[in-house]
Amino acid sequence: MASTKTAKLHKSFLDGPAPALKRSDVNWEKGGLPEYEGLWAVILDGIVTEEECDQLVAAAEATTDGKWERAMVNIGGGKQALYDDVRNCGRIIWDDQELVNKLWARCASAVPEINELVDWPDVTGNGPAKRKETWKLSRLNERMRFLKYGPDEYFKAHCDGTYETPDKSERSYFTLHLYLNEAGEQLKGGATTFHSYNMGREIRVVPKVGRVLLFQHRGLLHSGEDVDKGLKLTLRTDIMYTKATE
């Protein structure tokens, strides 16, 4: 369950634009995964400073008195189960709509093409495209999942699933990962890796502090690589959409 405790962040935390925004599109052809051509994945660097990342981690830990539960796997029907052969890491769940709104405000201008989804079956599925539906970006999901991977911890290859709100008024189509620390002397391994479906080829996105990785849920097989040394810290949430009315 998400904690109801209040994290100790200054009210101006994350106010203002990204400190050093730079967009890079994942190049499937150049990276050796041409079968993913046309699928959407973007890297935004310089979204959050290292100090802000440290503050986020400290605030998340304050909501649970420093305790990290074991992350579970969605098994459908709104249920989860612990399968550490698939997913092995720590997790803190923290709901804060105002905070994620500020995070998205730093990202939004760099990815205007996902504000409205029209005739984009690779993202929405064939049904919405055939029905000529328009889906408009509404917000980031308030549910932040902070993840902590230690040595030999991982998340095996999988595709992300769509989340629909209980009242069915919103659904997610994209994943957002914010890396809260980076690979280097203290952290070895832990890349987010996109895989070919035969697992023979891959593109690796290396953790970098303040980096955001955005990608569509549908069709992108990916994993959190084993951590070889140190700790990998990330924040994951979803981009939510509402269907436009006539």
List keywords for this structure.
246 residues, alpha+beta
Quick structural summary:
With 246 residues, the chain is of the alpha+beta class. It has a single domain, classed as Sandwich (Jelly Rolls), CATH 2.60.120. It has helices at residues 28-31, 50-62, 97-107, 121-124, 126-130; strands at 22-25, 41-45, 69-70, 73-76, 79-81, 87-88, 90-95, 116-118, 134-140, 143-149, 154-158, 171-179, 188-189, 192-195, 202-205, 212-216, 222-224, 227-229, 232-243.
Rounded to the nearest angstrom, the radius of gyration is 17 Å
- Dominant shape: globular
The biggest beta sheet is recorded as: 10 strands, antiparallel
In terms of DSSP E residues, the strand content is 35-45%
Kindly report the name of the CATH homologous superfamily.
q2cbj1_9rhob like domain
